[in-house]
From TrEMBL, chain B:
Gene Ontology MF: a single term: copper ion binding
Protein name as catalogued: Cytochrome C oxidase subunit II
Entry similarity comment: Belongs to the cytochrome c oxidase subunit 2 family.
Catalytic activity: 4 Fe(II)-[cytochrome c] + O2 + 8 H(+)(in) = 4 Fe(III)-[cytochrome c] + 2 H2O + 4 H(+)(out)
Domain spans labelled Cytochrome oxidase subunit II copper A binding: 97-213
Residue ranges occupied by any Cytochrome c domain in the UniProt entry: 222-314
Keywords recorded for this protein, A-Z: Copper, Electron transport, Heme, Iron, Membrane, Metal-binding, Transmembrane, Transmembrane helix, Transport
Domain of life: Bacteria
Secretion signal span: none
Keyword Transmembrane helix: yes
TM ranges: 26-49, 65-86
């Protein structure tokens, strides 16, 4: 999923060699991160909601709504948390 | 872009048209001959090392050297050369008059694609994406704007160099609808490995519809918007053209139908709002060394407006 939409265009993502985009924050260490988008407590639900449709939960953010569904967003959130633990 | 190089069967062994068939034949013949020669050499080594004395003497004798070292290679290589030249001569046959004409220019590090009329005038310009109808030869003129590149869409043809100051000709034909990846096959500088494109083969009537939409995109008047004002004021228009507007830059890809393209960044990213934002804002982290600067000094709102504007260009 991360490769299909290429989240790496804006984010450094653990386990992804390329691209390592620098427009958005690095997502290495999401398991230790305090807040999602500097705004919400870092729960898997909040993370997934932000991943799927960021402007809906944080108006004004540059991150766009992604062309993925709820389930896929939860998978991506889980990946980010698990992969950061390695 | 990796679709040009990976997959099963490997694209180079999976021809989709008559101009790729001989390449597969030659590839298999080369592999077969290579395997045969390797086997013979290993066998000879084994004889020289462990074989009976009579065999060893025979192998080291002058006759063997003349037969296996001179006569056999001369005959085999000459035969292979003649066969290979006959096989690949077809590849250089120019497309018939009246065939669709396209010019593809290698640039550091992307492909400029221009559709030509029968007189060779440019009627539409695109980037890193070439649309063709199936079942007919398409005459491609290959050029370069800077250094030597090489055009390679392995499903459709062999490689051909793009050389500054000259035009090389290549004919391709796709017999099946589909999307075929291509890459630059000649090292051309820092971002060479991230220089790709796609060829999209449509059924002829579907191609006609695509072409109509592409022409309409060029002709549609584009109302001024906040995004367009930013596009021109921030400097985008210095390098990029949007047909029908005052954005007429020539250095970078023409963006008239950028939102309708399948890829961004030189055939390397899928095209969605996220990748578009990442590319406009910080392309240097995605494709280090590319000629577009980062636009990370724009206000978030401005970046969004520019991306929203680009999304209307289809």
């Amino acid at each position: 999923m991360i490769e299909r939409v290429q989240c790496g265009s804006c984010h450094v993502i653990p386990g992804v060699d390329w691209p390592k985009g620098r427009l958005g924050p690095s997502l290495d260490g999401m398991d230790q991160q305090g807040l999602v988008a500097g705004t919400f407590p870092n729960t898997p639900q909040n993370l997934a909601a932000f991943i799927r449709n960021a402007p809906a939960v944080k108006p004004g953010t540059v991150m766009p709504a992604m062309p993925i569904d709820d389930r896929e967003a939860r998978d991506v959130a889980q990946y980010l948390i698990e992969e950061s633990k390695r | 872009m990796t679709e040009a190089l990976f997959g099963w069967p490997p694209p180079v062994l999976d021809p989709m048209g008559p101009y790729a068939e001989p390449v597969r034949t030659v590839a298999w013949a080369l592999s077969g001959m290579g395997a045969l020669v390797t086997t013979l050499v290993v066998a000879a080594l084994f004889v020289a090392w462990r074989g009976p004395p009579v065999w060893r003497a025979r192998l080291g004798g002058q006759t063997s050297i003349l037969v296996f070292g001179v006569a056999l290679p001369a005959v085999v290589l000459a035969a292979l050369l003649i066969w290979g030249l006959m096989l690949t001569a077809k590849l250089d046959r120019p497309a018939a008059d009246g065939a669709m004409r396209v010019r593809v220019t290698g640039e550091m590090w992307w492909f400029r694609v221009q559709y030509l009329d029968p007189q060779g005038r440019v009627i539409a310009e695109d980037a890193n994406e070439l649309h063709i109808p199936t079942g007919q030869p398409v005459a491609i003129e290959l050029a370069s704007a800077d250094v030597i590149h090489s055009f390679w869409v392995p499903h459709l043809s062999g490689k051909k160099d793009m050389i500054p100051g000259r035009t090389n000709r290549l004919t391709v034909q796709a017999d099946r609808i589909g999307r075929y990846g291509g890459v630059c096959a000649e090292y051309c500088g820092r971002a060479h490995a991230l220089m790709g494109m796609v060829v999209i083969a449509h059924a002829p009537d579907e191609f006609g519809r695509w072409w109509g939409a592409r022409r309409a995109a060029a002709a549609t008047p584009k109302p001024d918007s906040a995004g367009f004002a930013l596009f021109t004021d921030s400097g985008c228009a210095a390098c990029h053209t949007v047909d029908g507007t005052r954005a007429v830059g020539r250095t970078g890809p023409n963006l008239t139908n950028v939102a309708a393209r399948q890829t961004l960044g030189g055939g390397i990213l899928p095209n969605n709002r996220g990748t578009m934002t990442g590319w406009v804002g910080h392309s240097q982290s995605i494709k280090p060394g590319n000629r577009m600067p980062n636009y990370d000094r724009l206000e978030p709102r401005q970046l969004q407006d520019i991306v929203t504007y680009l999304e209307t260009l289809k």
